[in-house]
Every structure is written in structure tokens, then in C-alpha cells.
Specification:
Length: about 130
């Protein structure tokens, strides 16, 4: 099994920056097997895909809402994926979740944004921009 723990959320003023972290633990070769994604959910709204990165870290995708303001990266030696967010806006306020999934060779933008493709989810970290 795989456990994901997010951290780094908090209260930040508009225009500020945050870096979220997600550390994975569990059995198997987590780093080599899993593509990682970030999703968010604001109060009263559905879950929204934010960004994703493939297992090797060579390919990244972003939702239009964060493109140009965010950078996803991973350190496989530390089993950790990061989401750096800059120029934060009030509409970025949400609970942010990381997720892990095996793409089985099907990695693509379309695969990355589908929540049901991810098998493991963290508990979330709250980001409030105000």
C-alpha cells in the first residue's frame, strides 16, 4: 500500500507564493512506478485537476488556471513531489490533494487530468489566499 502526506499549505496574501510537498511511503518502488498529480477542491465546488508529473519527472502538465504561475517537480530519492505556486489569487483557495497512479504506459495530458486514474490519495493541505 502507499501513503501520501501533503504539507506546506497555509494562509498567504494575494500575490504571494507557497510550495506544497507530498511525501509518499509504503511498499514497492514508489518513485519509479507512480505518476503524481495535484488536485484541489474549493468549498462548494467539485474537485479540480491542477498539475501532474510522470514517474521520471521529465513531463509535466498544468491546468490553464495555474499555468505560468505553478511548477510541479519531484525528487524521487526523497519520494516527494512538490507544487510551487506563485502569484497566488483568492480563487486559488482550496484544499489541495496529491495523488499517485500507475500509467502503465498510457501517460498523456488526458490521462493526467482524470482523477479516477490515480489509486492513492493524501488527506490534503489547505491553501487560503486572502
Amino acid at each position: 500500500d502507499v501513503q501520501l502526506v501533503e504539507s506546506g499549505g497555509g494562509l498567504v496574501q494575494p500575490g504571494g507564493s507557497l510550495t506544497l510537498s507530498c511525501t509518499a511511503s509504503g511498499t514497492g518502488r514508489i518513485s519509479e512506478e507512480f505518476c503524481m498529480g495535484w488536485f484541489r477542491q474549493a468549498p462548494g465546488k467539485g474537485r479540480e485537476w491542477v498539475s501532474a508529473i510522470n514517474s521520471g519527472g521529465g513531463t509535466t502538465y498544468y491546468a490553464d488556471s495555474v499555468k505560468g504561475r505553478s511548477t510541479i517537480s519531484r525528487d524521487n530519492a526523497k519520494n516527494t513531489v512538490y507544487l510551487q505556486m506563485n502569484s497566488l489569487k483568492p480563487e486559488d483557495t482550496a484544499m489541495y490533494y496529491c495523488a499517485a497512479g500507475r500509467s502503465d504506459g498510457m501517460w498523456s495530458y488526458r490521462w493526467a487530468l482524470m482523477a479516477h486514474k490515480y489509486n492513492y490519495w493524501g488527506q490534503g493541505t489547505q491553501v487560503t489566499v486572502s
